[in-house]
Amino acid sequence: MDERLRSIIERIEPLDAAAMAAARARQDRLTKPPGALGRLEELSVWLAGVRGAPLPQVQKKVIVTAAADHGVARRGVSAYPAEVTGQMVLNFLAGGAAVNVLARQVGAQVIVVDAGVFSQPSDDARLIVRAPLRGTADLSVGPAMPRKVAIASLLNGADLAHDVIEHGADVIGIGDMGIGNTTPSAAITAVFTGLPPAAVTGRGTGIDDAALGAKILRIEQAIAVNAPDPTDGVDVLTKIGGLEIGFLAGVCLGAAAERRPVMVDGFIATAAALIAVAVAPEAGAYLAAAHRSAEPGHDAALAHLGLRPLLDLQMRLGEGTGAALGIGLLEAAARVLSEMATFDEAGVADSDSASAGES
Fold it and tell me: What is the overall mean pLDDT for the chain?
């Protein structure tokens, strides 16, 4: 394994059990019945463990939207041409995409990354260019990328996570853009879950039955031709992955090494999480699933990771849209834990004191 990648993995520690116990104890003393806020309470305790702090804060919020192109897109697996990837990058930079709207709603910064678009879409200084290759090869006939490129994409993502955390990020959401990228995501999901491609492949941008059949065939061919090793996350990324998928997997690794939570968006971002956890199983503890995508393979990918989505809105856009909504919930959970009064602070009798009075 690459030495830089190994050093990042070695820095990933278990969640802080003491901080989680303290957060849980405070939750049980807040002015409400224990457990009354449901998963918001769970989220706050988890966040305490991630940050190693009994009262974690969510102030600076970042969404990383990584874009890249895919050789397999030329095989008719998408309803849109590959040129749309670069065009959407320009829309992100202009602030006109759905992720921009939802990020503004929760006060998050959107960082747009060219992780491997066929042609660099802009020289705008706001575009972070981290493209070790200009798009992947057709994974249905051979490896999507060389192994050294796969490792570079992981390291690029980890480096960006380090940079945004140095600038104060408390949470990182991950989102994607890439025409055809539900194809490698379905292939990755099939390999790690052991399910047949037909069970985890959906219509993506809205393809018809004929195109769906062709898409499943390309995924079956990719797995047969490349024989990716599910015990080697870098091998899976190399053979059937995507550059934005590798980059986002690297963000997951880098954030975990810095004790920051990652809010995972939909199907493609979850495929990146599958790669990250295959590379470093300890990273899984730092991931939260924002929502359940309408893509059929998403449930299988989440189950493999042991993640339960926070929302189910039948979304399937990507970009980091679901991650934005999940970040809003994470901030709400942190604020409840730190700002809500305990029974003692509010001078309110709790169930224990009521029972004592009756006796």
Answer: 96
